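Question (not urgent): is this output format expected?
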Amino acid sequence: MISIPRSFKKNAAIALAILSSQGLFAQDWKAQPVDSVFHAARKEAFSGDYPAAREKLFHIIHAHADHADARLLIARTYAWEKQYDAARREIHFVIKRDPGNTEAIETLVDVEMWSERFSEALAVIEQLLTDAPDRSELLFKKARASYEMNQNAAALAAVESVLRLAPEHHDAIQLRQQIMDESKKYSVRLATSADVFSKYYSLGRGLSAEIGRMSAWGFAALRVNIANRFESYGTQVEAEVYPKLSKRVYGYVNYAYSADELFPAHRIGVEGYVKIARSLEASAGMRSLRFTDSRAYIYTGSVTLYAGDYWVSLRPYMTPYDGHMTASGVVSVRRYFGDADSFLGISAGMGFSPDYARLQSAFGIGDAGIHSFNSQRTAISWQKRFTKSWVANLACELTRQEIGRDGGYLLITSSTVSIKKKL
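Got this back:
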């Protein structure tokens, strides 16, 4: 006969009791005390099971209509599912019964901020600050709402108040830097590049100088690109604009001209960007390259995801030629560190990309080469803000480029160093 240790029997009994109690709760939670039901609903809500949580919470308020905590938790689950009107109904019910319920008013602030009704959020925040002027989190929400409404002076004043109360407030530090950056209207940027070819060609060099201006309607830049490749020099003049068309829509317009063979004679780029959600953006546009005797049209777009400190973008290129369509594309990932100017990025692509200036001339070939010749590339880039005004960037790229219809390839190792000063 096998002897079972007493400690095992005791632990098994405890485990069985726990499982039994959980099973009984799952089967008949309606018979449990209100506090037990509320805590179970709260656990389900924060684990993402909103329907199950609301079932329990509605059971509570059916019997206890004035149970404020249950109504406010219902409101938050609705808001987390972007059902903002339903959330507001529950919050206003609580406030109507108890106008001084601070938690209800703060929940309303969150809902208005999440639904991007910043003016309404700001009005409620000001009401709360009347009684609690030194609450750092409320002041930060005031700063964020003011910033989203393009009231940068008010946003900066609120941020400074936050930092006096909480000097290490990370989000406030970031927002202050962002506001101060936008107050600097001009920037200058210098970049130098080098291309090392595995065979046939000598070292290629490039130099670029840019002046940019930020304004309420968007960003504009004028750029001069100089190249020394294949024993010849070339100069390209380029203008670029990113106009703000609405709160969620902005554009991209680019025109470049060159009289030298190292660049297309004309380059035109047009694209529209739409912010679908706070973390998702999409775009569609085209590029046109005019060579000496031919023209190429490239249709493009992008899908970009913002996930915490990460930025992920997929950009395809579709190019019609000789009755069919050729495809290429690039995928890019960035990891940001502390601010919008500091990141580490990687990218990989296949085929011709008109956004890579060093490949636009395609070694002197025209549009036929763009469609027929293959390439694969991978790149890594690092950018860092060193002071409030100086930003440095280093990028390295390896390209495997087809150079003839016989299937010959060469490797191009490219590096770019740039420095930008915000004025």
